[in-house]
Amino acid sequence: MTGILRPAATTVVLFTALLGLAAPAALTGLAGAAFPDQAGGSLVSRDGAVIGSSLIGQAFAEPRYFQPRPSAAGDGYDASAGAASQQGPTSAKLVEAVRERVAAAGAQPVPADAVTASGSGLDPHVSPENAARQVARVAAARNLPEARVQALLQEHVEGREFGLLGERRVNVLRLNLALDALR
Amino acid sequence: MTLIGWAQIALVLAAIVAAAIPLGRYVALVAAGRARWLRPVETLFYRAGGIDPDAGQSWRGYAVAMLAVNAAGFLLLYLILRLQGMLPLNPRGLDGIPPYLAFNTAVSFVANTNWQAYSGEVAMSYFSQMAGLAVQNFLSASTGIALALAVSRAFARGGLQSLGNFWADFTRISLYVLLPMAVVLGLVFVALGIPQSFADYVSATTLEGGTQLIPLGPAAFQIAIKHLGTNGGGFFGVNSLHPFEGPSALVTALQTWAQAVIPVALCVTFGRIVGDARQGRALMLVMLGFLVAATLAIYAAEAAGTPVMAALGVDPAQGNMEGKDVRFGLALAALFTATTTGASCGAVNAMLSSFTPLGGMVPLFLIQLGEILPGGVGSGLYGMLVFALLAVFVAGLMVGRTPEYLGKKVQAREIKLAMLAVLVLPATILGFTAVSMVLPAAVASLAHAGPHGLTEMLYAYTSAAGNNGSAFGGLTADTPWLNTTLGIAMLLGRFAYVVPVMAIAGSLAAKVKTPEGSGTLPTHGPLFAGLLAGVILILGGLQFLPSLALGPLAEHFSMLAGKTF
Prior knowledge:
The complex is a heterodimer.
Chain A: H1 2-34, H2 36-39, E1 43-46, E2 49-53, H3 92-104, H4 112-115, E3 125-126, H5 128-132, H6 135-142, H7 146-156, E4 157-158, E5 169-171, H8 172-181
Antiparallel strand pairs in A: 1-2, 3-5, 4-5
Helix pairs in contact in A: 6-7, 7-8
Chain B: H1 3-31, H2 39-49, H3 59-82, H4 99-110, H5 120-123, H6 126-153, H7 166-191, E1 202-205, E2 211-214, H8 219-228, H9 249-274, H10 277-304, H11 307-312, H12 329-342, H13 357-368, H14 379-399, E3 404-405, E4 408-409, H15 412-438, H16 440-443, H17 451-465, H18 480-510, H19 526-541, H20 545-560
Antiparallel strand pairs in B: 1-2, 3-4
Helix pairs in contact in B: 1-7, 1-9, 1-12, 2-7, 3-4, 3-6, 3-18, 4-18, 6-7, 6-8, 6-9, 6-14, 6-18, 7-8, 8-9, 9-10, 9-12, 10-12, 10-13, 10-19, 12-13, 13-17, 13-20, 14-15, 14-19, 15-17, 15-18, 17-18, 17-20
């Protein structure tokens, strides 16, 4: 029996030291030197204060901002508690929630991403169609010509990665930062 | 469904196959002890453990060594989780994990399942993640690959007494295959936005003046092995959907590639070990055929959306978006879902519970087919070989001839053991689901009424016994009943399956190789591939059909009839 216990114990302990401590520590050092921004969470600062991460969506309720997708993370966009609704396609609760969001969203049909909760609860993006429906509201709240806001939105529509992967999308935080920076 | 969506799927699948061929050959070199560039480290492991890497082991010796290293891994991980509060690298000051959850989690990571009844950024310290969970991501993957190598060797020559040395296989796979791949992929992931940091969570003041607590951690390295080792356990609670775990479509494509490349490559390794590349290719084609069909089915179902949403005034153009993030798109969500459940990974980049009923049935069914399409690292190959034996047996019955696979006569003992292994899955899944559906303490965990509720429970035990780890996430899984029984299901699905498989390997290894005759069924051609696919569907799938009819199919027809629950 000891013939098995010794190799089992030493193998697990040595691999924990190598794969669980040395390798991730070395990679952390390397990553911090080569890609400090990404390794630290792609944080965005304004006037010296951290205002979020460019990868993580945040809550916007005021009419002068573009608004993100519905979120089930905490009270909405709680980055330390990412969560989906997990509601199934025949869930009465889901139907009720979507019915309310559609009613609040104006003209139908409504883009699906505007009335459905994202999988992460932290989706930083909306579809360009969803954003376009918000231009008039944002422009009115900011006393800006609609064309100006529309132009800014167009600048922030990101194409598919390498023209192929994923979907066209708009990063809401980046767009709202650009709005605040106008004039 | 769009053309550009199909192009994305085709590109990733092509990248998987293109990389699998050289990788499979390299793994065969490593298995033969011919990779030497980390020789000093390798020798250190052997010397410390008193291991003779050249000593051959019988199937029993090999299996006992495998069980011992897994038991030691379980014990260490359980202790790390329980003692979390006293260990370093715990900037949030998190307490130890309670006993039921620690048992479930430790079993889960040792059994290459990575079912998670916790949320990483809420419950786990950086130390628990990297020195506990991530280590088992490596070691459970090495265990699976080592077992697959041992089973492959049984077919290589006649009259073999040894299947190789477990310690040597295990150490070499960890050092020469998984470690370098995880380091490179981990660095690529950091470059593409996944954090790798020991700093505390960051508190941000949002544009509207609220506060947002942004989690960090040594995530990139762990996420790299999570996919390469088909483990699937997320660093963050929402897995590859979290913007830090799946920041872009490119990352999700790379993760899809990573979670399928080793299982597919091992088919090539098998061909090398048995000295006939065509044999491995036939297995690979069956795996990929199922994978493509499953992707097509999921993509079609999710792109169509649901009539419920359309009736509410939602534009069907984007398809079913509940539980999905915008950046990945439906095509990559469908391909990721098919590979993660076909390959026994269990990571998710879209929430399965919110899939359309048919879109959600496909991943469930892929797991029920035995996690062999292409299956977990190693477990996919040895699971596929069990079905190959059953396929030649069925063919043998039809013509009244003793079946052979690669020259080894397949007889009553092997078939009995193969059926024993194959029956572990339905017995565990259907047994536990049936009991849980009448047990008030278990039913209380369901988030849904109606057929979706049954699917939630069925999916949980399917995922556990299939060592997948994905979930219909509404289920409240952190309860004593579910933590315990899901833990047992994971153990059965991993170890009660593999011990009979090793016994088959031992018995086949000792047999002589019969030369190929005119009556031998060629096991590399389309006839055999078709037969194998049929046996997988009928033997693997049919026993689950009633449960699928009561769950997802019933939900589909309820939905068409406009009924909600």
